[in-house]
Design goal:
12 strands, disordered N terminus, alpha+beta, Cathepsin B, Chain A, about 350 residues, 11 helices
Length: about 350
């Protein structure tokens, strides 16, 4: 089994670019109902609409390099003329977190492209892509996409994103062209809605200085939200969530014994990855702290997904946030973006 050592992302070359809330949180988490008639999940979008700091927040330099393609390049980028039908396969992988602290053993399914690939040209399309994929999962219950289908979903969602970028109102509202989920749903990119009563907002915790602050008084922790997600669907069929954290969107399909996490930005998995991917967290999955004694208890099963989000996706940004807090230089908007995570329970309309 090959070890994937994950380091901090580096600047990409041009060809790769592409619950209830408590009263004390009302000021930060208020949101209007969507015009679709289905309300979005509680709380404001993670995207800061008033600044240019939104969008995928892995790397600021890389985000600044994301550009909308000129009109002449917005041609269909499908695979009709390539005469290929790729099924793809699940691969067992050992993945090391970016800080080197954690190690995950899980099955991974790769597309052949991701949203930044030339064939997709969807640099800031994560919210549209998540909507497109979530709708496909609702339309194909008990199924996961083949490689060619996942490729096509990345292509279709990226194409829809470029169309949204042509709208002058959208350009004015989102100068970086990273749209929040509410905007995508209102645009009817897909007949998809969010069920507010089954959606959750949680906050990662850093330490006493943060968790006791007025900012987080009465808020649900990420751990509490996760407990609600895994327990609320006992005995039911699969549920599809669009998750948003740190201005990036991905999809979670939750079933009784397995969780699939689908992300269209390969760099989220490891440095240099340029393929969208699906992580499968099932009975064979395991995560443990590196360097721990051999007999140290491992976390197994679908709860590995929780540890992946905390220890692989969020660990480094949260550690940097803690450092800024200790220095007294952190702004509330940044704290909000780094600590808040949303799980939007989706439904097909």
């Amino acid at each position: 089994m090959r070890e994937i050592n994950i380091q901090q992302p580096v600047e990409q070359q041009p060809q790769q670019q592409q619950q209830q809330q408590q009263p004390s949180l009302v000021r930060l988490l208020s949101r209007n109902k969507s015009k679709t008639g289905v309300t979005n999940s509680r709380g404001p979008p993670l995207l800061n609409k008033e600044s240019e700091d939104g969008g995928d927040d892995i790397d600021n330099d890389r985000r600044l390099q994301t550009k909308v393609l000129p009109e002449e390049s917005l041609q269909p980028l499908g695979f009709e003329d390539e005469n290929r039908f790729e099924v793809g396969k699940w691969e067992e992988k050992k993945i090391v977190s970016r800080d080197g602290e954690m190690e995950l053993h899980a099955e991974v399914f790769f597309a052949s492209i991701d949203q930044r690939s030339d064939k997709a040209a969807g640099g800031g399309a994560c919210s549209v892509l998540a909507t497109t994929i979530a709708h496909w999962l609702h339309d194909n219950p008990k199924s996961m996409p083949l490689r060619c289908q996942l490729d096509e979903l990345v292509h279709e969602g990226s194409s829809e994103w470029r169309r949204l970028c042509e709208n002058e109102n959208h350009r004015e509202k989102f100068s970086d062209q990273h749209f929040d989920l509410e905007t995508v749903l209102e645009a009817r990119v897909r007949p998809l809605g969010v069920v507010t009563g089954k959606s959750y907002i949680g906050f990662f915790s850093l330490g006493d200085a943060v968790t006791s602050s007025e900012f987080l008084q009465g808020a649900m922790s990420f751990d509490s939200v996760w407990s609600e997600i895994v327990s609320s669907g006992e005995g039911t069929e699969e549920r599809v969530y669009i998750a948003s954290w740190n201005d990036h969107f991905f999809v979670m399909k939750v079933e009784r014994d397995v969780i699939h996490l689908i992300d269209t930005l390969g760099e989220r998995l490891f440095e240099g990855c340029n393929q969208a991917y699906i992580l499968k967290f099932g009975e064979e999955s395991a995560v443990h702290r590196r360097g721990a004694p051999a007999d140290c208890e491992k976390i197994k099963g679908k709860d590995c997904c929780k540890e992946y989000i905390k220890g692989f996706l969020a660990a480094v940004p949260l550690r940097e946030l803690q450092h800024d807090i200790d220095r007294g230089v952190v702004e509330e908007a940044l704290m909000h973006r780094r600590l808040q995570i949303e799980f939007h329970h989706t439904t097909s309309l």
